[in-house]
Amino acid sequence: EEAAIRAIALSIRAREWSLGVQTIDDFLAAAPRKVRMRVSRVYARSGAEPMAERMLLRRLRMSPGNFLTRYQLGMVLAAQRKWAELLEVLLPFKRGFPLWEQIQRMRAQAAKRLNRGPKVVQYLRQLRAEKTAELNIQLPLMYAMFQARMFPQLRSEAIIALGQWTGNAELLFLRALAVTETEGEEAGRKAMAAVLELDPQHVNALNHIAYSLAVKGADLGRASRLIKQAMRSQPRNAAVMDTYGWVLYRQGKVAEAHIQLERAAVLIPANGEVHLHLACARYRLGQEEAALRLFEYSRHLARDDRERKDIVEIWEREIARGGVSG
């Protein structure tokens, strides 16, 4: 240990950085497991991740079967948000590894953050083949598929999962979302009704139905009842606030709508749709310059060309309605 410290000090004085890193690497390789784990956490939180990544990659190349090194490298990659590399490093792990639950969470986070639908599907199917696809891992991956607009694949994956977790309300909700997109509104309405039949307080289902009614401007009384029910369950849910604001807007209660939409925009500042709704409310309140700025910002936040097109269409429709509401 003393020899290693002297060698590191000499390499620093001589500015032989690669030699110093190699010495540290050799020293840590012989250190107790607890020490190596603590060093990894320090690297992951200290801003020294690139050096740690190089060191751990070198160690992993020398010993590919060292799963502790692989886990340490995963922590460092997660700190750098290198999601593709993280997923690749963690895929070889099998159930039974002492840190299995943490690894599962890291793998799911990486697949979701990649925002690449095919990668998510590949990972989900690999988990199922390994018989390690716990529901708490599958659900965020399926939501990532919905965000990637992979509706047919989402419908298939939800049906497969329902074979194992029969009657799970969250899986039924995901299937209903996919059915709406693949089979049309009528089939989606029936699928969503099945969710509420199983769980009348399912906030996401209440929110979805209320928002769909608000978009069509149909049965706003029912939309109001449903979204108020959701608000009572989750008063700080930003998506629910946004829907409540949009229902109020459709009812002509623009000042009340503005309050809800402003709160929602604060809670989810990177959501283009929420900012569009707020822009429409401000336009109707006579705040035209502020509304136009928000509209442009909502276009900037759009996830893809399709969402950007939808934002423009809604804005143009609301502008065409004209008028200032009290």
Distance between the termini: 76 Å
Chain-averaged pLDDT: 81
H and E string: HHHHHHHHHHHHHHHHHHH
Helix content: over 70%
Low-confidence stretches: none
Figure out the total of helices: 19
What structural class is derived from the secondary structure elements?
Answer: mainly alpha
Spatial extent as radius of gyration: 25 Å
Binned strand content:
under 5%
Shape: globular
Report the sheet with the most strands, covering strand number, pairing sense and barrel closure: none
Number of β-strand runs: 0
Structure notes:
The protein has 326 residues and is mainly α. It is built from 19 helices and no strands. The longest helix is centred in the last third of the chain and has 17 residues, at 305-321. It starts with a helix and ends in a 5-residue tail after the last helix. 36% of the residues are buried. The mean pLDDT is 81.
List keywords for this structure.
mainly alpha, 19 helices, globular, 0% strand, 326 residues, single chain
Topology:
Elements: H1 2-13, H2 17-29, H3 33-46, H4 49-62, H5 67-79, H6 83-90, H7 100-113, H8 117-129, H9 135-147, H10 151-164, H11 169-183, H12 185-198, H13 203-216, H14 220-233, H15 238-250, H16 254-267, H17 272-284, H18 288-301, H19 305-321
Helix pairs in contact: 1-2, 2-4, 3-5, 4-5, 5-6, 6-7, 7-9, 8-9, 9-10, 9-11, 10-11, 11-12, 13-14, 13-15, 14-15, 15-16, 16-17, 17-18, 17-19, 18-19
